[in-house]
Amino acid sequence: MTSQILFALTLGIASFCLLALIVMPMMERSRKMTKRALDIMVIARPDQQALSRRQQLEGRLLRLLREVRTRFGMGGSIKSANRLAAAGYRAAAAPDIFFAAQFLTPLACAFGASFITDNTLLWVMICAGVGYLAPGIWLTEKTRRRKDRIRRSLPDTIDLLVICVDAGLGLDQALLRVSQEIAVGHPDMYNELTRVHLEQRAGRPRLETWQNLTERVKLTELTAFASMLTQSDRFGTPIAKSLSTFAEDLRLKRRQQVEEIAAKTKVKILFPLVFCIFPCLFIVLLGPAVLEISSGLQTISK
Protein backbone atom coordinates (compact mmCIF):
# COMPACT_ATOMS: atom_id res chain seq x y z
CA MET A 1 0.00 0.00 0.00
CA THR A 2 2.82 2.37 0.90
CA SER A 3 4.70 1.49 -2.27
CA GLN A 4 1.62 2.27 -4.36
CA ILE A 5 1.25 5.66 -2.66
CA LEU A 6 4.93 6.45 -3.26
CA PHE A 7 4.61 5.36 -6.91
CA ALA A 8 1.54 7.54 -7.44
CA LEU A 9 3.25 10.49 -5.72
CA THR A 10 6.38 10.03 -7.82
CA LEU A 11 4.29 9.76 -10.99
CA GLY A 12 2.38 12.94 -10.06
CA ILE A 13 5.59 14.87 -9.38
CA ALA A 14 7.14 13.65 -12.63
CA SER A 15 4.00 14.59 -14.58
CA PHE A 16 3.95 18.01 -12.95
CA CYS A 17 7.61 18.59 -13.80
CA LEU A 18 7.06 17.47 -17.39
CA LEU A 19 4.05 19.72 -17.73
CA ALA A 20 6.01 22.60 -16.24
CA LEU A 21 8.82 22.04 -18.74
CA ILE A 22 6.30 22.26 -21.56
CA VAL A 23 4.26 25.21 -20.26
CA MET A 24 7.03 27.45 -18.83
CA PRO A 25 8.72 28.26 -22.20
CA MET A 26 5.34 29.20 -23.61
CA MET A 27 4.63 31.46 -20.65
CA GLU A 28 8.11 32.99 -20.91
CA ARG A 29 7.59 33.63 -24.61
CA SER A 30 4.27 35.33 -24.00
CA ARG A 31 5.91 37.40 -21.26
CA LYS A 32 8.65 38.53 -23.67
CA MET A 33 6.07 39.39 -26.32
CA THR A 34 4.06 41.34 -23.77
CA LYS A 35 7.17 43.22 -22.63
CA ARG A 36 8.07 43.99 -26.23
CA ALA A 37 4.55 45.30 -26.92
CA LEU A 38 4.70 47.50 -23.81
CA ASP A 39 8.10 48.86 -24.88
CA ILE A 40 6.70 49.75 -28.31
CA MET A 41 3.72 51.47 -26.71
CA VAL A 42 6.03 53.47 -24.45
CA ILE A 43 8.27 54.48 -27.37
CA ALA A 44 5.25 55.57 -29.37
CA ARG A 45 4.16 57.97 -26.60
CA PRO A 46 6.24 61.16 -26.55
CA ASP A 47 5.53 61.73 -22.87
CA GLN A 48 7.01 58.31 -21.98
CA GLN A 49 10.13 58.41 -24.17
CA ALA A 50 13.52 58.19 -22.55
CA LEU A 51 15.39 61.22 -23.86
CA SER A 52 19.11 61.11 -24.38
CA ARG A 53 21.44 63.69 -22.91
CA ARG A 54 21.77 65.42 -26.27
CA GLN A 55 18.00 65.69 -26.66
CA GLN A 56 17.67 66.99 -23.10
CA LEU A 57 20.36 69.62 -23.77
CA GLU A 58 18.68 70.69 -27.01
CA GLY A 59 15.34 70.97 -25.22
CA ARG A 60 16.85 73.13 -22.47
CA LEU A 61 18.53 75.42 -25.02
CA LEU A 62 15.30 75.80 -26.99
CA ARG A 63 13.36 76.65 -23.82
CA LEU A 64 16.04 79.20 -22.89
CA LEU A 65 15.84 80.80 -26.36
CA ARG A 66 12.05 80.91 -26.14
CA GLU A 67 12.24 82.62 -22.76
CA VAL A 68 14.75 85.16 -24.09
CA ARG A 69 12.50 85.95 -27.04
CA THR A 70 9.55 86.38 -24.70
CA ARG A 71 11.51 88.63 -22.32
CA PHE A 72 12.62 90.93 -25.15
CA GLY A 73 9.16 90.95 -26.74
CA MET A 74 10.40 89.25 -29.92
CA GLY A 75 7.71 86.65 -30.30
CA GLY A 76 7.55 84.68 -33.53
CA SER A 77 5.59 86.62 -36.14
CA ILE A 78 3.48 85.06 -38.87
CA LYS A 79 5.73 86.59 -41.51
CA SER A 80 8.88 84.94 -40.17
CA ALA A 81 7.05 81.62 -39.78
CA ASN A 82 5.91 81.85 -43.40
CA ARG A 83 9.45 82.59 -44.52
CA LEU A 84 10.76 79.55 -42.68
CA ALA A 85 7.93 77.40 -44.06
CA ALA A 86 8.72 78.59 -47.61
CA ALA A 87 12.31 77.46 -47.07
CA GLY A 88 11.11 74.04 -45.86
CA TYR A 89 11.54 74.53 -42.09
CA ARG A 90 8.20 73.81 -40.42
CA ALA A 91 9.35 72.39 -37.10
CA ALA A 92 8.11 74.04 -33.93
CA ALA A 93 11.68 74.87 -32.93
CA ALA A 94 12.58 76.49 -36.29
CA PRO A 95 11.75 80.11 -35.20
CA ASP A 96 13.81 79.67 -32.02
CA ILE A 97 16.80 78.31 -33.95
CA PHE A 98 16.59 81.12 -36.50
CA PHE A 99 16.40 83.67 -33.68
CA ALA A 100 19.49 82.10 -32.12
CA ALA A 101 21.30 82.38 -35.46
CA GLN A 102 20.33 86.05 -35.77
CA PHE A 103 21.47 86.70 -32.21
CA LEU A 104 24.70 84.70 -32.07
CA THR A 105 26.08 85.25 -35.58
CA PRO A 106 26.70 89.03 -35.10
CA LEU A 107 28.34 88.33 -31.75
CA ALA A 108 30.60 85.69 -33.26
CA CYS A 109 31.54 87.94 -36.19
CA ALA A 110 32.21 90.87 -33.87
CA PHE A 111 34.37 88.65 -31.64
CA GLY A 112 36.36 87.49 -34.64
CA ALA A 113 36.79 91.07 -35.90
CA SER A 114 38.08 92.20 -32.50
CA PHE A 115 41.40 90.46 -33.27
CA ILE A 116 42.05 92.86 -36.17
CA THR A 117 44.59 95.41 -35.00
CA ASP A 118 43.90 98.22 -37.52
CA ASN A 119 40.58 100.09 -37.16
CA THR A 120 39.23 97.51 -34.74
CA LEU A 121 36.01 99.37 -33.93
CA LEU A 122 35.15 99.87 -37.61
CA TRP A 123 35.73 96.20 -38.45
CA VAL A 124 33.69 95.10 -35.43
CA MET A 125 30.73 97.20 -36.56
CA ILE A 126 31.00 96.02 -40.17
CA CYS A 127 31.28 92.34 -39.22
CA ALA A 128 28.42 92.63 -36.72
CA GLY A 129 26.18 94.14 -39.41
CA VAL A 130 27.17 91.44 -41.90
CA GLY A 131 26.55 88.77 -39.27
CA TYR A 132 23.10 90.16 -38.56
CA LEU A 133 22.16 90.15 -42.27
CA ALA A 134 23.75 86.78 -43.04
CA PRO A 135 20.94 84.52 -41.66
CA GLY A 136 18.29 86.44 -43.61
CA ILE A 137 20.32 86.24 -46.83
CA TRP A 138 20.91 82.53 -46.26
CA LEU A 139 17.18 81.95 -45.67
CA THR A 140 16.30 83.86 -48.84
CA GLU A 141 18.74 81.76 -50.84
CA LYS A 142 17.36 78.53 -49.38
CA THR A 143 13.83 79.65 -50.32
CA ARG A 144 14.91 80.47 -53.88
CA ARG A 145 16.60 77.09 -54.35
CA ARG A 146 13.57 75.27 -52.98
CA LYS A 147 11.29 77.15 -55.36
CA ASP A 148 13.54 76.18 -58.26
CA ARG A 149 13.40 72.53 -57.23
CA ILE A 150 9.60 72.65 -56.99
CA ARG A 151 9.40 74.40 -60.36
CA ARG A 152 11.50 71.68 -61.99
CA SER A 153 9.42 68.91 -60.40
CA LEU A 154 6.04 70.38 -61.38
CA PRO A 155 5.84 68.99 -64.98
CA ASP A 156 6.60 65.44 -63.83
CA THR A 157 4.04 65.77 -61.04
CA ILE A 158 1.32 66.94 -63.41
CA ASP A 159 2.11 64.17 -65.90
CA LEU A 160 1.71 61.58 -63.15
CA LEU A 161 -1.55 63.24 -62.12
CA VAL A 162 -2.80 62.97 -65.71
CA ILE A 163 -1.89 59.28 -65.81
CA CYS A 164 -3.61 58.57 -62.50
CA VAL A 165 -6.76 60.51 -63.44
CA ASP A 166 -6.92 58.79 -66.84
CA ALA A 167 -6.65 55.45 -65.01
CA GLY A 168 -9.88 56.25 -63.14
CA LEU A 169 -8.67 57.71 -59.85
CA GLY A 170 -10.20 60.82 -58.38
CA LEU A 171 -8.08 63.92 -57.95
CA ASP A 172 -7.57 63.36 -54.22
CA GLN A 173 -6.57 59.70 -54.65
CA ALA A 174 -4.37 60.64 -57.61
CA LEU A 175 -2.70 63.31 -55.46
CA LEU A 176 -1.92 60.77 -52.75
CA ARG A 177 -0.57 58.27 -55.27
CA VAL A 178 1.62 60.85 -57.01
CA SER A 179 3.04 62.07 -53.70
CA GLN A 180 4.12 58.50 -52.92
CA GLU A 181 5.76 58.11 -56.33
CA ILE A 182 7.81 61.33 -56.22
CA ALA A 183 8.94 60.98 -52.60
CA VAL A 184 12.50 60.01 -53.60
CA GLY A 185 13.04 62.09 -56.73
CA HIS A 186 11.31 65.30 -55.62
CA PRO A 187 11.17 65.44 -51.80
CA ASP A 188 10.14 69.12 -51.67
CA MET A 189 7.10 68.57 -53.88
CA TYR A 190 6.32 65.42 -51.89
CA ASN A 191 6.23 67.41 -48.64
CA GLU A 192 3.91 70.03 -50.12
CA LEU A 193 1.52 67.47 -51.63
CA THR A 194 1.50 65.50 -48.38
CA ARG A 195 0.52 68.65 -46.50
CA VAL A 196 -2.26 69.33 -49.02
CA HIS A 197 -3.55 65.79 -48.52
CA LEU A 198 -3.44 66.12 -44.72
CA GLU A 199 -5.33 69.41 -44.85
CA GLN A 200 -8.01 67.78 -46.99
CA ARG A 201 -8.30 64.92 -44.53
CA ALA A 202 -8.68 67.47 -41.74
CA GLY A 203 -11.81 68.79 -43.48
CA ARG A 204 -10.64 71.75 -45.54
CA PRO A 205 -12.05 72.13 -49.06
CA ARG A 206 -9.84 71.12 -51.95
CA LEU A 207 -9.60 74.57 -53.49
CA GLU A 208 -8.70 76.13 -50.15
CA THR A 209 -5.85 73.68 -49.64
CA TRP A 210 -4.44 74.50 -53.07
CA GLN A 211 -4.73 78.20 -52.35
CA ASN A 212 -2.79 77.64 -49.12
CA LEU A 213 -0.14 75.83 -51.15
CA THR A 214 0.27 78.78 -53.50
CA GLU A 215 0.53 81.17 -50.56
CA ARG A 216 3.24 79.01 -48.95
CA VAL A 217 5.39 78.45 -52.03
CA LYS A 218 4.55 81.67 -53.95
CA LEU A 219 5.34 80.17 -57.34
CA THR A 220 3.74 81.45 -60.55
CA GLU A 221 3.21 77.99 -61.98
CA LEU A 222 1.48 76.74 -58.84
CA THR A 223 -0.74 79.82 -58.79
CA ALA A 224 -1.78 79.10 -62.38
CA PHE A 225 -2.38 75.46 -61.44
CA ALA A 226 -4.64 76.43 -58.54
CA SER A 227 -6.55 78.82 -60.83
CA MET A 228 -6.98 76.03 -63.36
CA LEU A 229 -8.39 73.71 -60.68
CA THR A 230 -10.76 76.45 -59.55
CA GLN A 231 -12.06 77.03 -63.07
CA SER A 232 -12.41 73.29 -63.73
CA ASP A 233 -14.38 72.83 -60.53
CA ARG A 234 -16.56 75.88 -61.19
CA PHE A 235 -17.37 75.26 -64.88
CA GLY A 236 -17.32 71.46 -64.86
CA THR A 237 -14.40 71.02 -67.27
CA PRO A 238 -12.96 67.46 -67.35
CA ILE A 239 -10.01 67.49 -65.01
CA ALA A 240 -7.91 65.11 -67.15
CA LYS A 241 -8.19 67.37 -70.20
CA SER A 242 -7.38 70.45 -68.13
CA LEU A 243 -4.32 68.77 -66.61
CA SER A 244 -3.06 67.64 -70.02
CA THR A 245 -3.44 71.13 -71.47
CA PHE A 246 -1.73 72.69 -68.46
CA ALA A 247 1.19 70.22 -68.67
CA GLU A 248 1.69 71.02 -72.37
CA ASP A 249 1.61 74.77 -71.68
CA LEU A 250 4.06 74.34 -68.82
CA ARG A 251 6.54 72.42 -70.97
CA LEU A 252 6.19 74.98 -73.75
CA LYS A 253 6.92 77.75 -71.25
CA ARG A 254 9.99 75.92 -69.97
CA ARG A 255 11.23 75.42 -73.55
CA GLN A 256 10.79 79.11 -74.24
CA GLN A 257 12.68 79.99 -71.06
CA VAL A 258 15.57 77.75 -72.11
CA GLU A 259 15.63 79.36 -75.56
CA GLU A 260 15.63 82.80 -73.94
CA ILE A 261 18.56 81.84 -71.70
CA ALA A 262 20.42 80.43 -74.72
CA ALA A 263 19.83 83.66 -76.66
CA LYS A 264 21.18 85.75 -73.77
CA THR A 265 24.46 83.82 -73.74
CA LYS A 266 25.48 85.50 -77.03
CA VAL A 267 25.49 88.85 -75.28
CA LYS A 268 26.92 87.61 -71.99
CA ILE A 269 29.87 85.91 -73.68
CA LEU A 270 31.10 89.23 -75.11
CA PHE A 271 32.45 90.40 -71.74
CA PRO A 272 34.79 87.44 -71.06
CA LEU A 273 35.68 87.42 -74.75
CA VAL A 274 36.76 91.07 -74.74
CA PHE A 275 38.42 91.21 -71.31
CA CYS A 276 39.95 87.71 -71.09
CA ILE A 277 40.40 86.10 -74.52
CA PHE A 278 41.27 89.06 -76.78
CA PRO A 279 44.20 90.28 -74.60
CA CYS A 280 45.70 86.78 -74.67
CA LEU A 281 45.34 86.66 -78.46
CA PHE A 282 46.98 90.06 -78.82
CA ILE A 283 49.88 88.98 -76.64
CA VAL A 284 50.39 85.74 -78.60
CA LEU A 285 50.07 87.35 -82.06
CA LEU A 286 51.69 90.74 -81.53
CA GLY A 287 54.21 89.84 -78.83
CA PRO A 288 56.88 88.34 -81.13
CA ALA A 289 56.49 91.19 -83.64
CA VAL A 290 56.91 93.80 -80.90
CA LEU A 291 60.03 92.03 -79.60
CA GLU A 292 61.58 91.90 -83.08
CA ILE A 293 60.77 95.55 -83.74
CA SER A 294 62.31 96.58 -80.43
CA SER A 295 65.46 94.52 -81.10
CA GLY A 296 65.74 96.01 -84.62
CA LEU A 297 65.44 99.53 -83.28
CA GLN A 298 68.13 98.81 -80.74
CA THR A 299 70.44 97.50 -83.54
CA ILE A 300 69.81 100.60 -85.67
CA SER A 301 70.50 102.88 -82.74
CA LYS A 302 73.85 101.18 -82.16
From TrEMBL:
Q: Which GO terms describe its cellular component?
A: plasma membrane
Where is the protein found, in the record's own terms? Cell membrane
Please report the record's description of how this protein sits within the membrane. Multi-pass membrane protein
Q: Which InterPro entries match?
A: T2SS_GspF_dom
> What Pfam families is this protein classified in?
T2SSF (PF00482)
Residue ranges occupied by any Type II secretion system protein GspF domain in the UniProt entry: 158-286
The main place the protein resides is membrane
Work out whether the entry's keyword set contains Membrane.
Answer: yes
Which keywords does the record carry?
Answer: Cell membrane, Membrane, Transmembrane, Transmembrane helix
Q: Transmembrane residues, as ranges?
A: 6-27, 97-116, 122-140, 269-291
Keyword Heme part of the UniProt annotation: no
Name the source's superkingdom: Bacteria
| Name of this protein | Tight adherence protein C
Which species does the entry assign this protein to?
Silvibacterium bohemicum
